[in-house]
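FORM 7B - TANDEM STRUCTURE REPORT

SECTION 1: FIRST PROTEIN
SEQUENCE AND TOKENS:
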Amino acid sequence: MHFIQRWSPKTVGLVAAAITVVIWTSFIVIARASVKGTLTPFDIGLARIIGASLVLVPLGVWLVRRDRVEAVQNAAPDSSLKGVHASSLFGLSPLPLRVTAICGVFGSFAYAALAYSGFTFAPAAHASVLMPGSLPLWTSLLAVPLLGLRITAVRALGLALIVAGDLLVGGASLLHAFDGGQVWKGDVLFMTASLCWAIYSVLTRRYALEPVRATVAITVFAFMTYVPLYGLLLLTHVLHSQLLSAPVGEVLFQMGFQGLGSVVISGITFNLMVQHYGPVRSTMITALVPGLSALAAVFFLGEPLHWNLMVGLALVTAGILFGVRKVNFAIK
């Protein structure tokens, strides 16, 4: 992280935003291509957590030990509001237990469980619209009571344009959610997953969490909750797993992309983006993901290019231009 300190805040924000958008877009495209794969959604969730934990759990141990040494050398208290010198979960999380648990529930455990479960009921195209597309709306609504922010008229217009663009991009597929069956369950899960991530993004700003520490903490929490629960559900035959029968390459790929890519890399860059742009403007930037993932699906998955995609992209872009203007960021 030392080389990042030599960059200007503007450069850090732009690079973090670009990396986050690319990884999130890739996540949607890969999810679309993987819906017929061997692994179940809960298997993918486990691979995501294990892959991230291989890197972040040892990093958490190192951070906690370093903090304790610095606390002794500087005669600093063993805790603080931001959790800089506090630890929890047997010295694996570099944040206090309360912050680790709250952020871990919404930013890792619940988000992963809800998002991957949604794919069992609804197609991935619904996820591309309902998860990243609804983030600006959820985050703006949450930032009002939690951060004391107010939504100006210009920002409200930007939000309206983004919502309209996202609906146009996936409107045709979303209409089929009300034809009957269980598709609506997946849509509810996707929307709830988006809400969980919005809560997490607002909490990281409210607690002024460092990007690396926040990512480590939520991964440690997921490792210590999701993994035991996954094993318990397997032993009680409530959950069916394909991990042992799936190709090794598929499992390793999911651990690498879902764990290292989606959690470690994009987790840190997303928090860096929140630090620079704030949670509301950051999630408005990620509203690029539905349109970009739809375009990527045209080139990589052979999906058709319809007029609503182009118009939707134009509306989303216009909404982002309104939303990221600093003049619209106001505090009560």
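SECTION 2: SECOND PROTEIN
SEQUENCE AND TOKENS:
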Amino acid sequence: MGIMDFVRGGVREMIVARPDSAKGLIVYKHPENTIPKWAQLTIDADEAAVFFRDGSLVGVLRTAGVGQRHTLDTQNIPFLSNLVDSFTGGEIFKTDLYFVTMRPIRDAKFGGNFPPMKDPALEITVSPRIHGEFVWRVVEPDKFIVNYLGLGGTPTNDAVGAFIQTKFMNAVRKTVPNFVIRQKVEIQELPAYHEELGQTFLQKCDDLSDIGAQFVGLGDFRINFSDEELKRIQDAQDRYADIKAKRRAKDDLTGGNYMQYAAAEAMLGAGQGMAKGGESTGMTGAGAGMGMGYAMAQMMGQAMQPGPVPGGAPHGVPQAIPQAVPQAIPQAVLVACPGCQAQVPPGKFCAECGTSLAPPQPRPCSACGTVMAPGAKFCANCGTRAA
């Protein structure tokens, strides 16, 4: 039976409603643009009906109540007078009718990789991943259609969801890097800040009020890493742990007096080196070398003892045994650190700050390729500053 059949027959029982097959759609457009007067409009509690004519918004209706329907008549619904088709004697409403779901959409998913971030402790750059769910809803169905969907064809749920997901993911991508920098959190520890991050995601979300929607809440989410990223993090953690262990060991030596320990080690090494250097002369050379090492250690011990009282002792008082004048560690066994400028024993790394003690190597200029002298700050050929 066509629309005009309803009109001519005076039938007032035509039902207008969203079909069961379309209940899952966020937006459903009624297929007919003419509706007879007295038709019965059914609107579910979780949706709204939005009326347009000639591209302009005419009105919005919500549910009529339990077991109730809206009777489409200008006496009941005044804004319907703007939909009356005069060519049919006022018996037909001409309209584009949309049903818009207003219940919370709870299965909205988001996820992807973050831009590269530098870990503040390990000093490596990694790109964590995030996957989760959020909740959103339409709160002003007329704005949602006018400012987002438009009056063309009805979009699929996937198309609508992709737009909202992009908006939410923008907030997530802005939040996490700022959180790492502000809180100085190691990136691999981000999952431990689940609740705090979730609250911040919602606070930083774009305002959707201009399209009549809003973010309502956050479901579960997970932050993780690829196998390759996990290996890089583990390697960096191992290196970091080794550095911290060496620093603790340095502080523990002789009550924290690492220079005293290093000087004693240098003296012992000098004695051993002299002993080895005399191997060609047999035990005599070895004894001399060991004696020299012992003498240097004894000199260091004497340097730690208090000296005699200036001016000598009064007459009749036993003279104090002269003490050796403290001697500085021979410069031959110390080198200047290029990092902290401390005088430290030679080796691969500085005993004070860990800087490499290897001499600077010649390297090519980044601009012209000319090989620069070790330690040069500018290229002698083109004047470019050394990288």
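SECTION 3: OBSERVATIONS ON SECOND PROTEIN
The chain is about 30% helix and 20% strand.
Residues 3-101 form one domain.

SECTION 4: SIGNATURE
Preparer initials: ____
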